[in-house]
Design goal:
3 helices; mainly alpha; 0% strand
């Protein structure tokens, strides 16, 4: 995306019904994703899982549980990246 593109052009590039296979059935409005809420929840999950993994390694000496929480923290990072890219593309939410 170039610097001279306006917000309206980014909105045009967003895929309105892409994530809603039932859009338009029975006159229903297209579903909208709550991207900001998803971003906040993923950030919260990242913080909690990272702190939990560190606590299990340092305090409880439980590497298996720390590994599970570290994996969930990595999933949260991927979700943050996906949501941030969708928001930058101009998808509402």
């Amino acid at each position: 995306m170039t610097d001279h593109e306006s917000g309206g052009q980014r909105e045009d590039r967003a895929r309105e019904d892409y994530h809603d296979p039932t859009a338009g059935f029975g006159g229903a409005a297209p579903a909208r994703s709550a991207l900001t809420l998803r971003l906040v929840l993923a950030a919260f999950g990242l913080i909690v899982c990272t702190l939990g993994a560190a606590a299990f390694v340092i305090l409880a000496n439980e590497p298996a549980l720390a590994g599970i929480l570290a994996f969930l923290a990595a999933v949260a990072v991927v979700d943050i990246v996906v949501v941030a890219r969708r928001k930058l593309r101009g998808e509402p939410g």
